[in-house]
Structures are given as structure tokens and as C-alpha cells.
Amino acid sequence: MNKTALITGITGQDGSYLAEHLLAKGYAVHGLVRRASMFNRSRIDHLRSPGGRTGRPSVSVERLVLHYGDLADLTSVRRLLRKLAPREVYHLAGQSHVGLSFEIPEVTCQENGMATLGLLEALRDLDYPVRFYHAASSEMFGSPRSGPQNEQTSFNPVNPYGCAKAFATQLCRVYRSAYGLFACSGIAYNHESPRRGENFVTRKITLGAARIAAGKQSVLTLGNLDARRDWGYAPEYVAAMWRMLQAKAPADYVLATGKTCSVRDFATAAFAELGIKLKFSGRGTAETGRRTDTGAIVIRIAPRFYRATDPSHLVGNAALAKKALNWTPKVTGTAVARLMARADYDALMSAM
């Protein structure tokens, strides 16, 4: 069996964990990276850099290969597909920050919507079968009329990011039914890890907690503390992505924990992991039970971090994934916060 996979967005959080997952299963993994990504590969450097007793990379150069390319350049993408003939394609690339999608809506729709269409067209024209995974999002549900949401819940996005993902997901369904393409969409709820970008609130919180605990920072500014999300652990979610492409038939699956956690609770757990107790005032600001050297309030609330519109009641029902894929997430909510805070603190202290 041809165990070759192509990952778009391999340098991102999910892409790096997925690469590890596939390599552990004996795949040859190829990653599509933009030229600008040449200095932003920290999440996969440990796979490519010499180290350990042998002084060699942990993965041979034949099993992990990066290719320069851009999804806006379909000619190069088509050539790469013909050259590699991958059995599986995991499409994880795109503008992934929901708040930023309000500032750059056209880029968001181009990268998350039209780029997916281009890939589907390229795959349709191949003369060999390919299994395709598309990274969809719970943001497609936006403000749902019911919950928890499952695969039959109607899309009702409330931000440009959710709109683009809904467009791409519907296209995958069209190409699946009209052309017989093995195309699956993973409707993933928020999933985090120590590799999450620093512009996401979860990583902002855990890095802030680590820096405050180390005496390197005195103030952490956040937005809506009462916003709630269904937060899971990224390595578990990439395992579900792989399982989706091993199924007998293509389908869309909700990937979620089924539990929600507020930003307030996430922050409380992250700080508690590092021995700092937060006490919230009536105005939403938080003070620590253990003051910093400057005596400053550790957490402050800033209206500029509130979204123009915020999804409400987003919590997923992953019963289908549990039944069909035998997938059940184990690390959720505050456990994710504690894990991330500890990893950020340990990394910070080892670098000092």
C-alpha cells in the first residue's frame, strides 16, 4: 500500500502533530510550505534537525520532505500531486485566526475557501484515487439554534472565517457526491497545545501565566472572560483526522469534547498550575493571591479584545466519530490549560 501523504499547513500546530502521527505509522510525509515559511518551522525542527546520540535527524530526509509552493498557484500544486502521487492529502493550510478574519476578510476567504476549491479541482483531474481531508471548523455553526451540534446541525456563521469554512465544507460535499471524490471534513472544535500560536487566547494565557510566575511579566490583558469554548487537545484531534481517511466511505465528522470551558476558568487553571491563585473582582479584572514584585494587577480586561460578534453555545456532539472511528478525546478544558501552562513554564525556565 502506498503510504505517502501530503500535508498543506505542515508548519502549523495541527500540521506538525499530524506529521509526527503519520511518520510513526510508517508514512512518507510531504509538506507544502510557502517561501515565507522558511524561518517559521519551529514546530517541526525537531524532526529535521540533527540530535541525540547519532547526531542525525530523527526522521530520514526521504520520509519527511518539504516543498515550496502556494495554494494560489495551482499549476505548481498539480505538478506536485502528479510527482508525489500521494494516497492521502490533508488540507490544513489557511488563515486560522477568527478575530483576524474581520480585519482581512478577503484573504481569509481566498485562503480558506477558494484555495480549497482549487485543490478539489486538482484532485478531480488526477487519474488515481486520493483521499482528501479538509479542516473544517465549529465556527461554521456560529450562533446555532440547538446544541450540542452534530453533523446535521445547520451552518450559521457569524464571522468571515466561519463563512469561508462553510463554503469549503459544502464544496467537499458537492465533489464527494458529484464526482465520487473521497473527501472528508473534520468539523473540529477548538483544540489547543503548547504549539498553539501566541495570538490565540489560550496560548496568550498560558504564556502569560508562565512569564508572570517567572517574574518576567506583570500584566496580562484579555477580552471577554465569560466566552465559552469546547476546548480539546490537538494531538488527539490529528489522530481523528487520520482515522477519517482510513474509513471505508467518506463522511464529515464533528470532532469535539462535548464540554465547554470559559476563558475565566481556563485562565484560573493555567495560573493555578503554576501556584498562582486568581481572584476576580466584580468588574472582571483579576488579582493574584500572590502579588508580583511590582504589586500590579496580573489580569486586565480590554474592550479591544472583544469580537465584533462572538459565537454562542458552541459545544459539539462527537457521537458519530466515537461510533464510526472509535475516537474519544480524553484531555479537555482546564486539563489542557494546565498542560500548556506547565510546558510554557518549563520551556521558559530551561531557556533562562
Tell me what you see in this structure.
With 352 residues, the chain is α/β, with parallel strands linked by helices. It has helices spanning 13-24, 45-48, 74-84, 105-124, 160-179, 201-213, 234-244, 263-273, 319-325, 333-351; strands at 4-8, 28-33, 50-51, 56-57, 64-68, 88-91, 131-137, 182-188, 191-192, 220-222, 228-229, 232-233, 253-255, 261-262, 278-280, 286-288, 299-301. It folds into 2 domains: 4-195 and 231-259 and 312-332, NAD(P)-binding Rossmann-like Domain (Rossmann fold, 3-Layer(aba) Sandwich); 201-224 and 263-309 and 343-351, UDP-galactose 4-epimerase, domain 1 (Alpha-Beta Complex). Strand 6 (88-91), helix 4 (105-124) and strand 7 (131-137) form a beta-alpha-beta unit.
Query: Which of globular, elongated, flat, extended, rod-shaped describes the shape?
Result: globular
What composes the largest sheet? 7 strands, parallel
What is the CATH level 1 assignment of the largest domain? Alpha Beta
What would CATH call the architecture of the largest domain? Answer: 3-Layer(aba) Sandwich
CATH topology of the largest domain: Rossmann fold
Radius of gyration from the CA trace?
Answer: 21 Å
Question: Treating each run of at least 4 consecutive H or I residues as one helix, how many helices?
Answer: 10
Q: Would you tell me the overall average pLDDT?
A: 89
Helix content: 25-40%
Strand order of the largest sheet: 5-2-1-6-7-8-13
* Cα-to-Cα separation, first versus last residue: 47 Å
* Domain unit count: 2
Helix and strand pattern = EHEHEEEHEHEHEEHEEEHEEHEEEHH
Poorly predicted tracts of residues? none
Strand content: 15-25%
CATH superfamily of the largest domain: NAD(P)-binding Rossmann-like Domain
Class from secondary-structure proportions: alpha/beta
